[in-house]
Amino acid sequence: MVFAEALVPFQSGWPHVHHLFGLLCLVAVVYKLFIALRKRRDAIRDFSAFTGPPGHWLLGHVMDFKQDGTDLDKLVKWGKQYPYAFPLMFGPVVCFLNIHHPDYVKTILASTEPKDDFAYKFIESWIGEGLLVSKGQKWFRHRRLLTPGFHYDVLKPYVKLMSDSAKTMLDKWESHANTSNSFELFEHVSLMTLDSIMKCAFSYNSNCQTESGTNAYIKAVYELSDLINLRFRTFPYHNDLIFYLSPHGFRYRKACKVAHSHTEEVIRKRKAALKAEKELDHIQAKRHLDFLDILLFARDEKQQGLSDEDIRAEVDTFMFEGHDTTASGISFILYCMACHPEHQKICREEIIQALDGKDTMEWLAYMLKTSQQLVCVTLRLSI
Ligand code: HEM
User: Fold this and answer.
1) Cβ contact 122:233 at 8 Å
2) What number of helices (H) and strands (E) belong to the chain?
């Protein structure tokens, strides 16, 4: 009896709490909607000087990208149809100006600011605030601390590691060539670049090229790359709450956990192994330095190093930035060479001459003038 009486004020209070909660949710939704509509209005106004392909009123141009191998052709077609630049909408709010005229591209490439807040928001929970995402003072400090990582002496031993990875890939291709069946080249190149970056960034031999699909970390990296791509194209997933509560968001968090615990484990083990070493020179005398060594030894003018979180962010950033970009670049170069056998022939002859009977590349870039030019031109075309 006493208990029931005590419950009365709470019971009568419940509807009020519900109402209040409902009202707060409504205000939040209206506010978000208002911000979204304002963003849409601003984007349409800002890009009104540029005509572009017509899009769906809600989905924009998302459905035009079918991921069936024709997407790039479509962009080329639009590039011819709409001079200089054309806007594309991804969902009702997100609008990109697709710039393709060299004069416009030059202006953008010459500036370092601002960073792409929208797209980077989707990867930050995986790669943290590394060089790619960070800005201002934090970016500046990290950029300076990481500069030794790009020194010629540090990069040189990477050539052997990369060439070993490329050899593994070519061996696989040789067995494919014997069957005369066609196969998707990008997958192979992507595994090769991931293999290379793992060896160079933290001396990790994953055997991912020969045992793809079995390594939990490799699987997590691919899962994360796919889900980020999917999130970008699915506009309700642009909202954190909707994405993280969805099955895809659940998979994303799970893959993030796998990737992070792997990186943390590698950092922990290396820290333990480096305990006795005080100087990078001592390590370099025994073995080649990798990117993780540089990160762990980096010190600013106050002798402050990077925090564990910062180190993890930089390693994860390089893992992401370092493999997918190069895989796309290399695949596109191979495609262009296949389309232009006359240039392919010149490059082949130049490389055979530079190899001078050996089967491995060392630091030969300066001898490969035409091949280097071809790589540069193709990368420019791929932008
Ligand atoms: C063909 C290959 C590559 C292309 C086309 C490419 C493209 C780019 C572009 C366009 C940016 C600027 C992004 C922005 O300002 O928002 C960038 C930044 C960056 N890339 Fe790459 N990248 C390639 C290879 C690599 C590799 C191999 C690595 C690492 C091993 C790497 C690491 C980074 C990092 C750390 C940043 C951020 C730099 C900073 O803000 O200081 N990239 N990349």
Assistant:
1) no
2) 16, 2
Instruction: For residue 193, give the ligand 1 atom closest to its CA.
Output: 27
- Residue 235 near residue 92 (C-beta atoms within 8 A): yes
Give the chain's mean pLDDT. Answer: 87
Q: What is the CATH number of domain 123-324?
A: 1.10.630.10
> 């130049």: which residue's tokens?
350
Q: Cα-Cα-Cα-Cα dihedral of 293, 296, 297, 302, to 10°?
A: 160
Q: How far is CA 178 from the centre of its chain?
A: 34
Residue nearest atom 34 in ligand 1 by C-alpha distance: 132
Rounded CA-CA distance 72/94 in Å is: 20
Token pair recorded at residue 68: 């069936």
pTM comes to: 0.82
Residues 306, 314 contacting (CB under 8 angstroms): yes
User: Exposed/middle/buried for 50, CB within 10 Å: 0-12, 13-18, 19+?
Assistant: middle
**Extents of the domains making up the chain:** 48-111, 123-324, 340-383
**For 132-162, how does the pLDDT look when each residue is reduced to its tens digit (9 = 90+)?**
999 999 999 999 999 988 888 888 888 889 9
Question: Residues lining ligand 1, judged by CB closer than 6 Å?
Answer: 115-116, 131-132, 143, 197, 317-318, 321-322, 325-326, 329, 379
Name which of 250, 297, 274 is nearest 147 in CA terms: 297
pLDDT tens digit sequence for 9-44: 555 555 678 888 888 889 988 998 888 889 889 988
Residue 383 is predicted with a pLDDT of 65
DSSP assignment of 192-240 = HHHHHHHHHHH-----TTTSTTT-HHHHHHHHHHHHHHHHHH-GGGGSH
Stronger pLDDT, 116 or 243, i.e. the higher one: 243
Residue 321 Cα to ligand 1 middle (Å): 6
